[in-house]
Every structure is written in structure tokens, then in C-alpha cells.
Write a structure and sequence with these properties.
By secondary structure, the protein is mostly helical. The protein folds into 2 domains: about 100 residues; about 60 residues. Helix content is about 60%, strand content about 10%. It has a two-stranded antiparallel sheet. It is elongated, with a radius of gyration of 30 Å.
């Protein structure tokens, strides 16, 4: 299973919030323990202790750190859910594509639009493969910049745009014959 940026970000954020929460709890526990009345210690003959404050920690600081962590966590969870939704949609598209029969009629309809969009780029090789309701356009160029320009001209072309609902860019390894 591939690990994506959103998963790594979510795990890192959760770990960061957990560490901040632990630090907050320890500090709050030390301050609370130090500020309890020393009645039991005074009865036993121990000297009375004064309440201690953790140096540099405002009593509201821990709560604000925890609130910030919670907000960051909610945001990261939202980003993670969106990334997982996109991943599930891509998996669904791949499965539909892999399971469907080849559609020659669809290739004949989309192929000329792709050719027209990329007609001014003779060095870019293209291949259109349609299965079911999904078509893949494989672009192969001499340089990465040339491939990016080809991709942009393909996705910005109005004739190709009329035939598509969504564009997905999946960089791949160049295939050699």
C-alpha cells in the first residue's frame, strides 16, 4: 500500500498533538500537586509547602495549546478524509477501467480531439485507450517540461474538455518498444 502525503501529515500531526497533550497534563499535574493544602504533611511534622507554579507556564497556556492541537487535528482529519476519498475514487476508476472491454468507437471519437489538441507538438507521442466510460491518454515526450506543456494544452483544449468530466494526471515511466 502506498503512503501518501496526507497520511504522513495526519500521523505527524496526531503525534505532535499527543506530545503537547502529555506535556500539558504533566505540567497541570505538577502544578495541582504542588498547590494542594499540606494539611496531612503538617500533621506529620513536615514543613508546610507553598503552591508552586511551573516556570514560564501561564495557567491558560496549556488550554490554548490543547485548543490549537485540536483545531490542527480536525483540519488534518478533514484533509486526510478528502485525500482518502480521492484515492478511493481513483481506485474505483482503475478497477472500472481494468474490468471493462475496450471501446473502439470511443477511441475513434476522442482520438481526433487529442490529435488536434497536440497537433503543434510533433515530438510528443500519444496513445488513446478507452475501456467502458474511461479513456486514458498516454503522453510521451523527450523532456519533463515538454510533457507538462503537452498535458496543459490537452487539458485546456475546449474540444477535449467537452468530452471529459475529469482529468487525472498520473506520471509514469516511459515505455520503450
Amino acid at each position: 500500500m502506498k503512503t501518501n502525503k496526507a497520511t504522513i501529515l495526519g500521523v505527524a500531526l496526531i503525534a505532535s498533538c499527543a506530545l503537547h497533550a502529555i506535556q500539558f497534563i504533566r505540567t497541570a499535574h505538577e502544578v495541582t500537586k504542588a498547590s494542594l493544602p499540606a494539611a496531612t504533611d503538617a500533621r506529620a511534622g513536615a514543613p508546610e509547602t507553598r503552591p508552586l507554579r511551573a516556570p514560564g507556564i501561564d495557567s491558560n497556556a496549556g488550554a490554548s495549546i490543547l485548543d490549537r492541537c485540536n483545531k490542527q487535528l480536525v483540519s488534518a482529519q478533514s484533509d486526510l478524509a478528502a485525500a482518502q476519498e480521492q484515492l478511493a475514487q481513483r481506485r474505483d476508476q482503475r478497477a472500472r477501467f481494468d474490468e471493462a472491454a475496450r471501446e473502439a468507437a470511443m477511441e475513434q471519437r476522442i482520438g481526433p480531439a487529442v490529435e488536434a489538441a497536440l497537433s503543434k507538438m510533433p515530438g510528443v507521442l500519444r496513445e488513446v485507450e478507452c475501456r467502458g466510460d474511461i479513456c486514458k491518454v498516454h503522453l510521451s515526450a523527450r523532456t519533463r517540461d515538454e510533457a507538462r506543456v503537452a498535458w496543459k494544452s490537452l487539458t485546456k483544449d475546449p474540444q477535449v474538455g467537452e468530452l471529459t468530466d475529469i482529468f487525472t494526471n498520473e506520471p509514469g515511466v516511459a515505455r520503450r518498444p
